[in-house]
């Protein structure tokens, strides 16, 4: 009997996420699936809830309702999360922020190893060796002993990416990682992200870089007013958008 092709179970599945800040109902039932080894781009106008979703996937925001599964971890936001659940969520994914948030008083190596050593309790030598190997991969091995202030914005953001990788998460979350960079520095950060995607990292990326989303993402969700209006392969969402709101957003950017 011919067997049906089986789609891989999503690494991440969020269902019905709702979140209000006071009277502002910013997430109004968001669903998101990210298959293992794929890149999911979250696009849409400012204020549509993309960052709030992303932060919810790392426990930096807590939705008021909805469910989330990442790997083996299953959470139901309609009841308070326990301390263990929060810690497990924080471990499952690692976030690369818009501003890199590096500690100015620590060297590059110190910034990359502080999480693995202090938070995860890993051995110093092992954490240092892993960090140096990761820095090598993004071309920053020789900056290990430098302080963040001596690096360019693009180099700082690459350290931010290495810091996330060093936590050995099951997926990476990027919140507009290039939007605070000078235009000439954007390319080097997108290049690292493209390499990570090619290596098979599972990634969710909030981005205004629609060229990156089009070329690198496997799937795109278009957000507007707290819901995913449209999702699909980039060639479909960009090339043949179905929804009026998606069409208007893309036209405005042309
Ligand atoms: P996007 O990433 O699409 O620009 P956000 O998720 O950042 O959208 O924001 C969605 C809405 O939630 C905005 O109106 C924003 O002002 C509001 N918001 C986000 N975070 C907070 C917060 N911590 N406190 C109050 N309002 C917030």
Task: Name the features.
6-stranded mixed sheet, 4-stranded antiparallel sheet, alpha/beta, 9 helices, 37% helix
Would you kindly provide a written description of the structure presented here, covering whatever features stand out?
With 254 residues, this protein is α/β, with parallel strands linked by helices. The chain has helices spanning 50-56, 83-92, 108-119, 124-137, 153-166, 183-198, 210-216, 234-239, 244-252, and strands at residues 12-21, 24-34, 39-43, 65-70, 73-76, 93-96, 171-175, 203-206, 219-224, 227-232. The strands form two sheets. It has a six-stranded mixed β-sheet, with helices on both faces. A four-stranded antiparallel β-sheet has the order 2-1-4-5, covered by helices on one side. Adenosine-5'-diphosphate binds next to β2 and α1.
Cα radius of gyration in angstroms = 19 Å
Tell me the number of strands.
Answer: 10
Distance between the termini: 50 Å
Task: Tell me the β content.
Answer: 15-25%
Helix content: 25-40%
What overall form do the CA principal axes indicate? Answer: globular
How confident is the prediction overall: mean pLDDT? 93
Q: Could you say which structural class the secondary elements and strand pairing correspond to?
A: alpha/beta
